[in-house]
Amino acid sequence: MKQLTLSTDLITSDILPVLSKAKTSPHTYLDTRVTKTHRDNKRTRSQTARERLRTKEHLATLAGELHEVELADKLRRCHSRLSVLTCGRHIERIIPNFTCEFRLCPDCGRRRSRKLQKKYLPMMRAFLRHRQVTPVHLVLTQTHRKETRKQSAKRINDAFKKLQRRSFWKEFFKGGTWSLEFTKDKNGLHHTHLHIIGFRRKFFDIELLRSEWLAVTGDSHVLNLKPIQDIAAGLREVVKYVSKPLDIRRFGAADLKEFIGLKNMRMFGTFGEFRDFCKSFVPSDNDGDEVSELESLSRDLTEGCACPKCAAPLFDLRLSSDELLRFYEGIESSPPGKVGTS
Ligand SMILES: [Zn+2]
Ligand SMILES: [Zn+2]
User: Fold this and answer.
1) How far is the CA of 313 from the centre of ligand 2 (A)?
2) Cα of 74 to ligand 1 centre, how many Å?
3) How many A from CA of 104 to the centre of ligand 1?
């Protein structure tokens, strides 16, 4: 109920000329979302796996409704057969038979977001070592209008480009990464947000940033800024939107159709000095260590090797996605130390 009022407030305040009532504090909206994320993190592997399966089935059904037969088939085949390297209790590696690479596929999204983390985390750490900057998570939002998802994304991207050209921005930020998040409200209006990891050179008054954002958008002042304590966690949070752009389970066929039309839209990128830094980045020995932190050691493991976690011998299992789900459940319900399903 509270949420409902909030989002209505947000819409009204954004549709009305905003200048006069810039303090209606719609940030609670963003804060609620942060809390929700923390809850999400506590779900078990079987729960998230089940959710991914359902999401995919939902997408495949919608694709069928749109007569996108090939897409429906690809989604159903993606990660449907898996080669799992396990000791029976720990899973060291999962290799899917097929990946669909569809933008909204939750399995492919996870892989994509892991790839992004692996690529950018060493660069971010190196950048933080070499520059006098503090990482912050900045969320920029815009007013909701009747427009397509594409128009909505273009509007916020254009505004952000303008913001970067302003002297305020240049004075306080040394670049960073951006990613797009799409949501939709009950009235069908798009809420497009930009999640930015910004490298801040020094403190500034948040109201200044608010007025700068208002100046480039003409009507939006809603933003949220928080310091990032742990850059790995900060990056993980931001790439999450690339892997899971919105609540797909509430998606209808029309939404899917729109997304299929967005084929070439970028959802993640770098900007400013950090962008140049990435282009010329050559990992040093130090940076190499950090790469391996994310790089799974399991790459070299094969059947018969000792499990790195419990030393029991590893073996290969061929499972369907449903069987993997039950395998997770087995591990979760058996007491520690005891080997589960095999
Ligand atoms: Zn996929
Ligand atoms: Zn083990």
Assistant:
1) 8
2) 7
3) 8
Cα 56 from Cα 107, distance rounded (Å): 9
Ligand 2 centroid distance, CA of 119 (Å): 28
> Which pTM value belongs to this model?
0.75
- How far apart CA 321 and CA 327 sit, in angstroms, is 10
Q: What is the pLDDT of residue 35?
A: 38
CA distance 246 to 152: 15
Residue 262 near residue 150 (C-beta atoms within 8 A): yes
- Tens-place pLDDT, residues 205-245: 899 999 999 999 999 989 999 999 999 999 998 888 776 65
Distance 319 CA to ligand 2 centre (A): 18
Q: How many C-alpha atoms does 84 have within 13 Å on its Cβ side?
A: 22
What distance in angstroms lies between residue 100's CA and the mean position of ligand 1's atoms?
A: 4
Q: pLDDT tens digits for 240-259? A: 877 665 677 778 898 889 88
> For residue range 282-331, what is the model confidence (pLDDT) as tens digits?
877 565 555 444 445 456 788 999 999 999 999 999 999 999 999 999 99
Residue type, 20: S
CA of 47 from ligand 1 middle (Å) equals: 18
Q: Which ligand is nearest to the CA of 71?
A: 1
Distance from the alpha carbon of residue 139 to the mean position of ligand 1, in angstroms = 28
Buried-state track 95-108, b at ≥16 Cβ within 10 A, e below 16: ebeeebebbbbbbb
Contact by Cβ (8 Å): 314, 85 = yes
Q: Point out the ligand nearest to the CA of residue 78.
A: 1
Measured distance CA(303)–CA(298) in Å, rounded: 11
Long-range contacts of 298-306 (CB under 8 A, 24+ apart): 298/85, 298/92, 298/93, 299/93, 301/85, 301/92, 301/93, 302/85, 303/85
Phi, psi of 241 (to 5 degrees): -70, -25
CA 149 – ligand 1 centroid, Å: 22
Ligand found nearest the CA of 336: 2
